[in-house]
Amino acid sequence: MQRSLISPVAVEMAITEPHDGGTLCLTPLCSACRANSSGTAALHRFLLSGLQERLGSKREAAILALLTARSIEDAARTANVPPRTLHRWILEPEFDAAYRKARRAAFSQSTARLQQATSAAVSTLLKIMVDAGAPPSVRVRAADSVLDHAKQAIEIEDVEVRVAALEQAAKLSGQDR
To answer: What is the per-residue pLDDT across 70-104, written as a single tens digit (0 to 9) for each?
Structure first.
């Protein structure tokens, strides 16, 4: 079976935007997802792959509702379960693990989208920094931001090198035993 790639835009749409008659989709079986073999349907299959068999469709819907709602009470209302039940489910290790997995998947897609936008952000900063028509305070702020981010990038690279060296030393030390 071929797995479809899920774009960050599809993730954002599936989690935040209506696509079934103006309502948020909270289950992989909504009419819009049944009619669509990619995009939002693929996202739902990705986020909750295998959960329905283990948790059941109500709990699956509750997890998706938790990803989109402002509160547990709103999520419970959306998933059509009592708030007390949803609170109880959240305390169950299997439900909690599934919810955390779905949150990580959604967050990972959002992070990927931010990373895709970094090139445009850097271009914007550099254009403002060299724009003679921009106010001096704005140009200085853009230059300061570029320098600050460049410094942070170097520091992160240094830490990565140090961590890699420590991991290698730990690995070699473990082999000596």
So the answer is: 999 999 999 999 999 999 999 999 999 989 988 88
In angstroms, the CA 61 to CA 80 distance is 9
Contacting residues for 15 by C-beta, under 8 A, at least 6 apart: 43, 67, 68, 106
Which stretches within the chain are classed as H helix? 8-16, 31-35, 40-47, 51-55, 57-68, 72-79, 83-91, 93-130, 136-175
Residue found under tokens 């209302």: 77
98-111 per-position pLDDT tens digit: 899 888 888 888 88
pTM listed for this prediction: 0.51
Residue with tokens 């909504």: 30
Place of tokens 């410094």: 151
